[in-house]
């Protein structure tokens, strides 16, 4: 009972801490930091996320994790990928002898000194998910208590990541609308057009130049004119 209370207290404090982070990247970095400090046996940690059908590690605690994760993506095998694709929790107490990853495991052990791994699946939305990856340089570093705490923390972390991502997308959408509105106003004033006509002109230039509307709007705001198709740049 006391142990459950301790876990609950740790998770509650982690949830409050993550809620205070102002950006998605800072949220990811804090998740990694908390994993190292909270989960017994965890020496290093990182987050794998699926974005636009690509898996990447946007936050890691140290170069060991960066290389360990990158090697998994390169070889298309490893505990992080298994957690993302198949299992809620993947654990190995002796990486060097683990037959599940015949290419990754020997290299992780020999090149990086990895001995134990604990990876927990993260669900950040219906279509985007990832894993919280915890590394150790000692065998059998993660016990049942670590499994329980890591799984509970991963659920809180996933919710925090999802909220931060949504907030970032909303802020980006507002900024985009504001920029397009500013460009539309410039076009209206400079060429004596109605709002609808100014937007139609911008849409046509965007399509003909094959650039995003927001990039076109940014150029209009910067130069105070509509660029020709040949001049329009896609930054």
TrEMBL record:
Gene3D superfamilies associated with the record: 3.30.450.40, Winged helix-like DNA-binding domain superfamily/Winged helix DNA-binding domain
Protein name: GAF and ANTAR domain-containing protein
Pfam families reported for this sequence: ANTAR, GAF_2
Superkingdom as given in the UniProt entry: Bacteria
UniProt domain ANTAR: residue ranges: 160-221
Keyword presence, Transcription: yes
Stored InterPro entries: ANTAR (IPR005561), CheY-like_superfamily (IPR011006), GAF (IPR003018), GAF-like_dom_sf (IPR029016), GAF_ANTAR (IPR012074), WH-like_DNA-bd_sf (IPR036388)
Keywords carried by this UniProt record: Kinase, Transcription, Transcription regulation, Transferase
């Amino acid at each position: 009972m006391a142990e459950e209370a301790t876990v609950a207290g740790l998770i509650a404090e982690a949830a409050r801490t993550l809620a205070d982070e102002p950006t998605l990247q800072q949220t990811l970095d804090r998740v990694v930091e908390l994993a190292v400090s909270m989960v017994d046996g965890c020496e290093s940690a990182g987050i794998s996320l699926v974005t636009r059908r690509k898996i990447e590690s946007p936050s890691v605690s140290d170069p060991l994790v960066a290389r360990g994760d990158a090697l998994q993506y390169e070889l298309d095998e490893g505990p992080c990928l298994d957690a993302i694709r198949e299992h809620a929790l993947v654990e190995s107490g002796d990486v060097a002898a683990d037959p599940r990853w015949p290419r990754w495991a020997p290299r992780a052990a020999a090149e990086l000194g990895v001995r134990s791994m604990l990876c927990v699946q993260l669900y950040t939305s219906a279509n985007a998910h990832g894993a919280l990856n915890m590394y150790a340089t000692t065998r059998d570093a993660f016990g049942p208590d670590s499994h329980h705490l890591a799984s509970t923390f991963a659920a809180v972390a996933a919710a925090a990541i999802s909220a931060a991502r949504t907030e970032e997308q909303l802020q980006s959408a507002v900024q985009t609308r504001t920029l397009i509105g500013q460009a539309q106003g410039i076009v209206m004033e400079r060429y004596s057009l109605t709002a609808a006509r100014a937007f139609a002109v911008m849409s046509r230039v965007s399509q003909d130049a094959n650039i995003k509307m927001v990039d076109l709007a940014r150029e209009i705001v910067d130069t105070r004119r509509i660029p020709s198709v040949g001049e329009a740049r896609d930054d």
